[in-house]
Amino acid sequence: MKNRGRARRLQAAVVCATAVLIVAGCSTVTQGHALSMLNDPFRVADLPATNGPSGIRSNAPAPNGTVVNTDNGQIDKLALLSVNDIQDYWKSVYSQSLKGSFVPVSKLVSYDSNDRSSPIVCREQTYKLVNAFFTGRCNLIAWDRGVFMPIAERYFGDMSVTGVLAHEFGHALQQMSKLVTRSDPTIVREQQADCFAGVYLYWVASGKSPRFTLSTADGLDHVLAGIITTRDPVLDADTQNDDEHGTALDRIGAFQMGFITGASACARINKQEITQRRGDLPTALQVDTNGDQETGEVTINEDTLSTLMELLGKVFSPKSAPTISYKQANCPDAKPSPPASYCPSTNTIVVDLPGLAAMGKVSSESEHTLPQGDDTALSIVMSRYALAVQHERGLPMQSPWTALRTACLTGVVHRKMAEPIDTPSHNELLLTAGDLDEAVAGLLTNRMVASDADGTSVPAGFTRISAFRGGVAGNMDACYSRYPV
């Protein structure tokens, strides 16, 4: 966030991995309501939201094929098995939605980015290249078995390795079907590849892969976390192209398009589609009057929250605005959900300020967390205000649909905050690049933005993020119609 009032900025940091994703189940079920599968709290697309095993099946066939420069270790065996599965899938369905002919990737190469003698792969120096990539020049996929893939596996599980390679094979599909040219920007290439990964992983999640399983709650959450944190070079791109890969919302949005709709949706992704999907959301940090790049971070304190409450009042225009309190008190009709709770009977948002400030502290790279910063904390307060406006409408405070409606309304607030909103104090909080990454990461980790008045969320991060995305792209009326119960 950018505050033009009294709150000072914090120093920014970059983060790159996650340690633990905790998924809470739902204890409240409402019966008798017909809902779109896409808006059902207990489904992921048309699949049930379930926790369970994710990774290599116990009866999976052995990997087949050759990996150049392999050390015959676990990572290379997992990668080869993944490419076997990905290629078999796309070979069987390619002609249904893509033009041209299916062409298998001709070579797989493993390297260790820590090794000074790591080979040059298709004219690319791989020493210190901590990544995985596809290059059409040589029709090959290569991966770093020394750093990149082990980190992905450690923090996101086996299926994150498979997901990375599904993304890289998406670049191969682009070449087969001539979906992109050298003039297309990097972000188009990357989001198409994210989308193709979603198509393949839907097939795995639906139980059809002979090699892998993927649960739609905790398993898919880890894959989504990997999407947020991993980036890859497009080695055949025109060097004059920008190197933008997209925000977390961009990338997960593209992945969800493929997971829900299929390969035809991926083929439709182009610069215009991405621009329309983004709207006017910020994608780059601004420069201050001294020419220095702004961090976009504000301090989480009473002044900042006072400005936020004023802003939320302008966005929602409730007849009776909730008040904010920093003193814990008993609430007869809702459980506490620290660091911010909403009490319907008193129309009060109760904030544990030290706890909220800790949640809003920018993570350091060594902490191995998903992106975290001021909007991780502020989006939680936004969500509690969203509960207050639902309560004013007489809607239930404890239900999974309430949780998703809350996420949707919080997404609407983020869209509104992309432009200045005049408040009585004339202080402002503006959405900045990186804020959406923090909010989306929070939907996977603390889940609070997609929770009801008791702090209860829904099983799948995929579903929570879908609700938030719907709000960012839509309006308040759409949130109420999408989650009407």
Automatic annotation (TrEMBL):
It comes from the Bacteria. The keyword Signal applies. Residues 1-32 form the signal peptide. Keywords: Signal. This is Peptidase. It comes from Mycobacterium rhizamassiliense.
